[in-house]
Amino acid sequence: MQLPDESQLYTYADYCGWGDEERWELIDGIPFAMAPAPSTAHQSISSVLHGKLFAFLEGKPCKVFHAPFDVRLNSAGEDDTVVQPDIVVVCDTSKLDEKGCNGAPDMVIEILSPSTAKKDRVTKFNKYQQAGVREYWLVDPDSKTLSTHVLTDGGYITRAYGEEDSAYVSVLKGCEISMPDIFAE
């Protein structure tokens, strides 16, 4: 198995042949090596968020998944983008297959780390907006803040939350997440 050359463009078919030794994302055909194991704070936040969403969605049609979970954003076009967000909520289960999610999920959560923050805030922000991800959350463990981005008329409307606030999940009516729960030490 040959690992990708980060100076070439690839497709999802190429990505599938890279094996499981290393984790990669593919954005507009460009391969990005995934960072090493996340910090304890990152994993704690991920666990709390996944647990709260899982409990809220019990018995409902939407499903929540955590990384590693492939999301192929360009289901109807170029098959050159596959990402592995920290947490994904999918309400249209016809998008789910044995390989992950084919198309835009309803919600994506990325937990920032120093090595991925720029990609999450800029590159993925633009890709998620373009693909039609209805809600995108960026959680910053260092500043203990959350920014939510809700798709409205093709663009994201952003709100910011501090460590004492609560945030509503706009795509999941009645779902509220308490920031003190997320950032509890």
The radius of gyration over CA amounts to: 16 Å
**What is the mean predicted local confidence, pLDDT?**
92
Count of helical segments?
4
Tell me what portion of residues adopts beta-strand conformation.
Answer: 25-35%
Which blocks of ≥5 consecutive residues have pLDDT under 50?
none
Biggest sheet strand line-up: 3-6-9-10-11-12
Count the beta strands: 14
Query: What is the CATH class designation?
Result: Alpha Beta
What is this entry, summarized?
Helices cover 23% and strands 31% of the residues. The protein is α+β, with helices and mostly antiparallel strands.
Task: Explain what you see.
With 185 residues, the protein is of the alpha+beta class. It has one domain (39-182): tt1808, chain A, CATH 3.90.1570. It is 23% helix and 31% strand. The chain contains four helices and 14 strands. It has helices at residues 12-16, 40-57, 117-131, 179-182; strands at 24-27, 30-33, 63-66, 71-72, 82-83, 87-90, 96-97, 100-102, 107-111, 135-140, 145-152, 155-161, 166-168, 176-178. A six-stranded mixed β-sheet has the order 3-6-9-10-11-12, with helices on both faces.
Annotation keywords:
185 residues; 31% strand; globular; six-stranded mixed beta sheet; tt1808, chain A; alpha+beta; 14 strands; single chain; four-stranded mixed beta sheet
What's the arrangement of secondary structure elements?
Blueprint: H1 12-16, E1 24-27, E2 30-33, H2 40-57, E3 63-66, E4 71-72, E5 82-83, E6 87-90, E7 96-97, E8 100-102, E9 107-111, H3 117-131, E10 135-140, E11 145-152, E12 155-161, E13 166-168, E14 176-178, H4 179-182
Parallel strand pairs: 4-8, 9-10
Antiparallel strand pairs: 1-2, 3-6, 4-5, 6-9, 7-8, 10-11, 11-12, 13-14
